[in-house]
Amino acid sequence: MTIEQASDLILTHAASPIRMSQFRREFLALYEPPMAARSTRNKYRQVLDLVEGLGVVSTDQITPELVARFIAARPPGQSSYTTRSLLMSLRAIANYAEGRRYVVISPFRLRKLSRWVRVAPPKGKRHQSREEIRRILQVLAGDVATKRGWAGWRARRLHAAACTVAYAGLRFREAFMLWAEDVDPAAGLIRLVPRGRRLPDPGVEPVAGDEPRFKTEASAQPICLPAALQPILADWMAHRHDHPADFALPPLDRIPWLFPGSRRVGPWIDGAPGTKPIDRLKAAARRAGVEGVTWQSLRRSWATIAEGLGIPQAMITRQCRHTSEDTTKRWYQQRDLGNLRDAVGGFDL
After folding, report:
1. Are strands 183-184 and 189-190 parallel, antiparallel or unpaired?
2. pTM, two decimal places
3. 1.10.443.10, 1.10.10.10, 1.10.10.200, 1.20.1310.10: which CATH number matches 130-196+209-331?
4. What counts of helices (H) and strands (E) characterise the chain?
5. Which site among 54, 117, 191, 235 is 20 to 30 Å from 206 CA-CA?
6. Three-state SS string across 236-296, please?
7. DSSP string, 100-142
8. Which CATH architecture has domain 16-116?
């Protein structure tokens, strides 16, 4: 929107400001469970607390000057990512106020969010090359071939989990919350369903707003199960319930998780230091001579490698389940010079 357009809007729209206390009640009522997740409502409540802490008592004070003061009041050393996240919530609040005519125009209509805060380039390594990921998976496959007993079961679980993220581009919690029934080899699909850490108690209704949910509707879309991943998961499924003779295994219908913890009473999400999924993955990566590996970096690497393999951008975004291609390109796909070299290396005039 240009300054002239904004001026026209200001001249033709009258605002009817209300007290922030009244606005707060009205706005937060829209995000009460089960209409939204508790975490979403709590985030908006946090931002409204910060706004009121700056002395804002009426909606007509939601101005560009307020946004500037909001940014200036952030604690020293706060990540630009955190500041941007808070501003995204403030933008939703300001846009709602404009829609209800509690303010003439949202400050984010006058100046885009990206111009309010510059997100600093991330520190450290955020992607791995195709060769580096191959080396990590080879180390994990070697553990599967050589280890026995509990150590062999854990090695097979880590190998299958790492391959699932590396080959399918899943988020960490999505992969580790999967149930075995979510994997459909016949259809070549992984059906993503919001799952909680604990099995629902029979006959007990969940508390409104506490139901498992994904961040966006796009996150729940089924994704492709690559052919190379299918035999790895098939092998893991054949061993998923392995256990020593003296171990009391719970009933199998109480172990639905694709990657359960060693005691089989929940998904493998946490653990003692050194036994968590991230600890096991980093230890294997170091043995492969690769540093900076995380579950998220495997997901980001998937998007970069997919681009190099010629998978169309729209398909990469669908597999990552982002709401826009811009998100995929900005945060997940590295500007890979190798991909660029391969693509334009034969250019001639």
Report:
1. antiparallel
2. 0.75
3. 1.10.443.10
4. 16, 3
5. 191
6. HHHHCCCCCCCCCCCCHHHCCECCECCCCCCECCCCCCCCCHHHHHHHHHHHCCCCCCCHH
7. TTSSSS-HHHHS-HHHH-PPPPPPS-----HHHHHHHHHHHHH
8. Orthogonal Bundle (1.10)
